[in-house]
Design goal:
This protein is α/β, with parallel strands linked by helices. The chain has one domain (2-189): Flavodoxin domain (Rossmann fold). The chain has helices spanning 13-24, 61-72, 89-96, 118-130, 144-151, 156-161, 164-189; strands spanning 2-3, 34-35, 75-82, 105-113, 133-141. The longest helix has 26 residues, at 164-189. The protein starts with a strand and ends with a helix.
Length: 190
């Protein structure tokens, strides 16, 4: 689970904890919550991108920590708002710092914002493909009414509960692809 917003008063913690709880109900899954607030990476400024063969090791300590977390995971759920028709800059930056650690792993998306975050997810899917992540088709798009409930002190849990069906489908798809890709990665290194 990756929380893709660092804003003060953010909503993303609520859907992240909600989808994490759904994941924890499944057998044989270890779920970790990675909050970008805990990884204050500078904007990517390296002379060569992480995908470059023979590039120098990551020079920032927080990037080492972030990269280690990504390397350990077999699949990802990105919880993200949509800002101005796309994902937040902090999430894009976190994606850009890493390359081989993302490769050949599954990714799913839980989003909110204008148009329930669908346009931000569309951009993230394209970025994920370039990083050799395999984005699953199913997503959870949280309606604006649930987001507004957060800002107005309303019942966010009720709005999220209505999305249990799509959450189950997302998790089924993510786990299928995570297992298939892990099996293929293991076979290719044997």
């Amino acid at each position: 689970m990756i929380i893709g917003s660092t804003r003060e008063g953010r909503f993303s913690e609520k859907p992240a904890n909600w989808i994490a709880q759904h994941l924890r109900e499944r057998d044989d899954i270890e779920t970790r919550l990675l909050d970008l607030r805990d990884f204050p990476m500078p904007f990517f400024d390296q002379p060569v991108p992480p995908a470059s063969p023979g590039r120098a090791p990551y020079s920032h300590e927080v990037v080492h920590k972030w990269t280690a977390e990504i390397a350990q995971a077999d699949g990802f759920v990105f919880v993200t708002p949509e800002y101005n028709y796309g994902p937040p800059a902090v999430l894009k930056n976190a994606l850009d710092w890493v390359y081989p650690e993302w490769n050949r792993k599954a990714a799913a998306f839980v989003s909110y914002g204008s148009v329930a975050g669908a346009r931000g997810v569309q951009q993230l899917r394209q970025i994920a493909i370039e990083l050799q992540l395999a984005p699953v088709r199913s997503s959870v798009h949280i309606p604006v009414a649930t987001l507004w409930a957060h800002f107005q002190g309303g019942d966010v849990d009720a709005g999220l509960a209505e999305l249990s069906g799509p959450a189950g489908i997302l998790i089924d798809d993510l786990l299928w692809w995570t297992t298939a890709l892990k099996t293929a990665r293991t076979a290719s290194t044997s």
